[in-house]
Design brief:
Distance between the termini: 47 Å
Strand content: 5-15%
Largest sheet: 6 strands, antiparallel
Helix content: 55-70%
Number of helices: 18
Radius of gyration: 26 Å
Number of strands: 10
Order of helices and strands: HHHHHHHHHHHHHHHHHEEEEEEEEEEH
């Protein structure tokens, strides 16, 4: 009965979304503010209905109701409770319901902005948001019903992909969806802005900024968690693979970065308004394109939901409808937001504009590398691969000047500035960067061009932002400085783990010893262990330093999940601020030994620390933006 209620709530939500989308249009045509105001309670009701539906599906997973196809296909009675819950969104149907829930949460937050002063503007945003909700609700109800029954009920479930049974991946999709769907609110506000009459003066950029900040911040931490998961779960010693599905989240992040910085110029100088509106549209469209890539069945990846391509066609058609309407509206209405302002290169706004251009070029480059193989296959039936060499040779050279500009931008002033004053400002950073870089390379005793450039860029950003942070220590609006500092730490980790990584693949028997860098690794024993829903062979490796002191014990596992008949490897990692020691146990036996992969990954922890700093900086900035937004209603 609860399952049927969950399905009914979805149908009811579709009806309410229809009211939210149509009554404001009628009200605006008749100049009837009562009809326009209907959109506001509709936003609350939709959130309650979708939350109730999501709760019903979660209940079905928790009680193992195997009469529901979704539960029977993605759960099992022996699965731990955490993964029963994460199993709700660990499949296509459930993840669409989560998408809908996040969509209605942002719909609710747009409603919270409604007042007598901005009633027309917010009503138009809610109308657009309702159209998006209707599109995804129809998709869910017609092609992806999470409550579909199977009769007779199955005695037990088929289980859940073992490599997805991980705490980081349990919370990765909700955070990522906040990022993706957050851009829907930005899209709706941009459509409302373009629909404003010439005599309506609404500070739309102040309304938009918290939503951009929320989407970008949560997309950042969502991508980072996915990267952490790939690092320790997939067992290949790396954290980014330029997988098309990884690119699907990276592209809106790049445009979100450009959008966020452009909004600063709009707020300070009232320039780049049409550019900001275009970026707002494109960022959301790329989020929906990412949804198409994951759900269309055209990609083969551990991240994707392998589905009937007809579902992908629906999303593609819906994307085309959204894109066609929004871009035509932008073409017709954006002229009133155009201003011919010229920026000096050595100014804050000049540095932001240059970085914007570079971010868009990087996004276009990644988009081409992601989509081109699909187009080639669609038109010629030939498969080609675009991998790491393409991205490294195209994206990295563009990112280098972007990072240089990012380092100097926060130091510059608004408007034209004297070159000598600029040099005086950046000289301490240059000196500090050179000194630290020399120290780093004297420590690692390894030199190459990529390493030198990466370390210089990392400490260029870190030193600049640390200086600014100390100068403005009493200033509560330091969120973006913290986020920029996080970017520097991220680059440090990326450079160190890429340039100085050392790998050894060997076959080891019990009591064999291997040396990597200054560490001796001894294979002490192997044991069979049992987990809640798996059995595993666990290796026991003793790690000593050069003085024979015990550093740690590492215990990688080879797991077998009987329910799904899957084998997985579980890496064992010892981390400190300077490096990771990373061991993966491969196939083998007592007589021949086991294949063991050992990685020495320098500075990799700074990738995660940097991502966390970016997230925290984003949260601080978002809080400040919300305070500014509240002041508008007073």
């Amino acid at each position: 009965m609860i399952v049927e209620i969950g399905h009914f709530l979805l149908v009811l939500a579709l009806f309410i979304a229809g009211l939210q989308g149509t009554l404001p249009i009628i009200g605006a045509h008749r100049n009837n503010h009562s009809l326009m105001a209907v959109a506001t309670p509709a936003a609350i009701i939709q959130f309650i209905l979708i939350l109730g539906s999501f709760t019903a599906l979660t209940y079905a997973f928790l009680v193992s109701d195997f009469s529901v196809i979704n539960v029977a296909s993605n759960s099992h009675t022996e699965k731990p409770t955490l993964y029963k819950i994460s199993g709700v969104w660990g499949n296509h149907e459930g993840s669409m319901l989560l998408w809908m829930l996040v969509l209605t949460i942002f719909n609710y937050f747009i409603f919270k902005l409604y007042n007598q002063i901005n009633s027309t503007f917010i009503s138009k945003a809610l109308e657009t948001q309702a159209f998006i909700i209707i599109g995804f609700l129809l998709f869910t109800l017609l092609t992806s019903n999470p409550f579909e029954r199977i009769l007779p009920a199955q005695p037990n479930g088929l289980g859940f992909n073992p490599i997805l049974q991980d705490p980081a991946l349990a919370i990765h999709p909700p955070l990522l969806y906040i990022g993706y769907v957050g851009f829907s609110a930005v899209f709706s506000l941009s459509i409302a802005t373009l629909s404003l009459r010439n005599n309506e003066k609404i500070p739309w950029y102040i309304y938009m900024k918290p939503f951009v900040m929320a989407a970008w911040t949560f997309l950042t931490i969502g991508i980072a968690l996915g990267s952490v998961w790939a690092y320790y779960e997939l067992g290949w010693g790396g954290w980014w693979f330029w997988d098309p599905v990884e690119n699907a989240s990276f592209m809106p992040w790049l445009l979100g970065t450009a959008l966020l910085h452009s909004l600063i110029i709009v707020e300070k100088k009232k320039s780049l308004q049409s550019w900001v509106l275009l970026l707002s549209i494109l960022a959301f469209l790329l989020s929906v394109v990412g949804t198409f890539l994951v759900r269309s069945g055209i990609l083969t990846s551990v991240h994707t939901f392998a589905l009937d391509p007809s579902r992908g066609i629906y999303i593609l058609a819906f994307t085309a409808l959204l894109g066609g309407y929004s871009l035509i509206l932008f073409g017709v209405k954006s002229k009133k937001y155009l201003k011919n302002n010229y920026f000096s290169f050595l100014s804050k706004e000049g540095s932001i504009l240059i970085n914007n251009i570079l971010m868009v070029i990087v996004c276009a480059t990644v988009f081409l590398g992601t989509i081109y193989p699909l187009l080639v296959e669609a038109f010629t039936n030939n498969k080609i691969s675009v991998g790491e060499p393409y991205y490294n040779s195209t994206v990295v050279p563009i990112m280098i000047p972007a990072i240089l500009v990012m380092g100097i931008g926060p130091i510059l002033s608004w408007g034209r500035e004297d070159k000598s004053k600029t040099f005086k400002k950046i000289f301490p950073s240059i000196l500090l960067t050179v000194v630290i870089t020399v120290f780093i390379f004297s420590f690692y005793q390894s030199y190459n061009l990529i390493g030198i450039v990466g370390i210089l860029l990392a400490f260029w950003i870190i030193s600049n932002n640390l200086i600014i942070l100390f100068q403005k220590i009493a200033n509560r609006s330091n969120g973006m400085i913290i986020a920029h500092l996080g970017i520097g730490l991220l680059i440090l980790g990326i450079t160190g783990s890429s340039v100085w990584q050392e790998e050894k693949i060997t076959r080891m028997k019990i009591n064999n010893e291997v040396k990597i860098k200054k560490y001796n690794i001894i294979f002490k024993e192997i044991n069979e262990i049992r987990g809640p829903n798996y059995v595993a062979l666990q290796g026991n490796f003793l790690v000593n330093d050069e003085k024979k002191n015990i550093i740690t014990k590492l215990k990688p596992e080879n797991r077998f999940y009987p329910i799904t008949s899957n084998f997985t490897t579980e890496a064992s990692i010892h981390t400190n601020l300077l490096r990771d020691l990373y061991i993966v146990l491969g196939e083998g036996n007592l007589s021949d030994g086991w294949v063991v992969r050992i990685y020495y990954n320098p500075l990799v922890i700074w990738i995660w620390i940097g991502a966390l700093a970016i997230f925290l900086g984003g949260i601080v900035t978002m809080t400040n933006n919300l305070k500014k937004l509240k002041s508008l209603s007073k």
